[in-house]
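F.,

This is the one I mentioned.
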């Protein structure tokens, strides 16, 4: 074992950073044995030095993160601050000063991963970021290393625990979105401002990172189509259930069938209960990968939280330290395919559409014509009557003896696969029909 310790600067000491510091201190002997050299925490940069951090060596705390990375003797900087600045400047400076970097910063990697990789390469350093996607679940390393000899065609995942918790509660209890969000907030799953999670920004950043490494190309968060879960209603969930489906916020990254482009998107979708992702409950994450030779793989586990995320950070730390000991570096950016990222309109998917229509002769034919005019093929249609006086859902057409014609009916149409642009144009045309009183819900159907 080499005796000179590898020195580590910890940038940020919140929920994840304090777990990293604690484990580095309590497991120092094991880490040294695994690396082949002692791994020493040299400094911890924080914004609020007065805060109590149990198990974190107080003598290492500093408020000057830039001075810490500029010291000149730092071998590895661990960035768990988050956000774009000062994280980007600190990481770049760390590379310039000869350090390698572990980062958990999905926002920065999804916005500017290419520049960070370029800086790492320029200075002969490593950039590892397992913790940036799905917390403790090994995904970045399997994609960058284990599957490096295969051809990945599709990545389909639940990569945001907060939204999975909310949708799971809506599904299991029949709660509405606001009620389920309140419960997530009370239990600490949702932040006071839940926008990044519920509007899909967090999942979109993760989708960009996964698509880039899966398809060996550059994908930024700007390339990712995004819809959150705020419009998902209890009626959508009930409708999914009637179809033998559940609703999940999915991150979907796909290589086009001709291999000439890729797509990345985040939106709620109905998936069949038989799909492995349907059984991912509470705040868990899971990612389903399809590759030419490997076939279908599923990765499952806790996608957030201090200790699970620290586990991913420490795995990267050990890998980088081993590289330092053997005077090598790990894999850099692999973006040689330079594939264009197609727009959402070109994505081929299926829609589940609920319409409130006038219940009179010719309406079904009128609706069907709109689908036909847009080259969208209908898979199934279900009609359920609404009581003409109360507007409440009534008996189905087949069993609705006694319900009078002339009221309103609820029509549920599920399409075959078609380009998203054709599907959304169909919905717009349906909205313009006098006989369509309301397009009550639209949701994509995936995972079949
Ligand atoms: N807020 C994220 C989630 C965890 O709910 O999964 C951090 O990415």
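My design for it:
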């Amino acid at each position: 074992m080499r005796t000179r310790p590898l020195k580590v600067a910890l940038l940020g000491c919140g929920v994840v950073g304090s777990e990293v510091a604690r484990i580095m201190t309590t497991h120092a002997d094991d880490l040294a044995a695994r690396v082949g050299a002692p791994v020493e925490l040299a400094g911890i940069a924080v914004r609020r030095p007065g805060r109590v951090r149990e198990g974190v060596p107080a003598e290492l705390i500093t408020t000057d993160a830039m001075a810490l990375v500029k010291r000149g003797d730092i071998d590895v900087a661990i960035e768990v601050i988050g956000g774009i600045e000062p994280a980007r400047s600190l990481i770049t400076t760390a590379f310039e000063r000869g350090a390698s970097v572990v980062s958990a910063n999905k926002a920065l990697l999804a916005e500017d991963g290419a520049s960070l990789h370029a800086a790492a390469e320029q200075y002969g350093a490593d950039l590892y970021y397992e913790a940036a996607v799905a917390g403790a679940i090994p995904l970045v390393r399997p994609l960058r290393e284990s599957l490096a000899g295969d051809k990945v065609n599709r990545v389909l995942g639940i990569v945001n625990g907060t939204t999975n918790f909310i949708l799971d509660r809506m599904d299991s209890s029949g709660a509405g979105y606001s009620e389920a969000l309140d419960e997530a907030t009370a239990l600490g799953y949702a932040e006071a401002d839940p926008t990044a999670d519920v509007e899909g920004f967090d999942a979109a950043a993760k989708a960009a990172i996964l698509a880039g490494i899966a398809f060996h190309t550059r994908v930024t968060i700007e390339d990712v189509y995004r819809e959150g879960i705020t419009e998902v209603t209890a009626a959508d969930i009930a409708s999914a259930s009637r179809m033998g489906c559940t609703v999940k916020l999915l991150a979907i990254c796909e290589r086009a069938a001709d291999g000439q482009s890729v797509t990345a998107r985040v939106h709620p979708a109905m998936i069949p209960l038989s799909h492995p992702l349907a059984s991912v409950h509470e705040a868990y994450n899971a990612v389903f990968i399809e590759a030419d030779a490997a076939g279908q793989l599923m990765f499952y586990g806790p996608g957030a939280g201090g200790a699970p995320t620290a586990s991913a950070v420490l795995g990267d730390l050990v890998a980088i330290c081993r590289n330092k000991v053997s005077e090598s570096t790990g894999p850099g950016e692999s973006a040689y395919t330079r594939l264009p990222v197609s727009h959402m309109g070109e994505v081929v998917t299926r829609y589940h559409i609920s319409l409130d229509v006038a219940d009179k002769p010719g309406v079904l034919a009128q609706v069907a014509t709109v689908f036909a005019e847009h080259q969208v093929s209908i898979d199934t249609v279900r009609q359920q009557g609404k009581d003409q006086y109360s507007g409440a859902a009534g008996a189905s057409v087949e069993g609705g003896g006694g319900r009078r014609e002339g009221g309103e009916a609820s029509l549920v149409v599920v399409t075959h696969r078609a380009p998203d642009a054709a599907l959304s144009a169909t919905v717009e045309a349906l909205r313009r029909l006098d006989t369509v009183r309301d397009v009550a819900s639209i949701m994509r159907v995936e995972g079949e």
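Residues 19 and 108 are 22 Å apart (CA to CA).

Talk soon.
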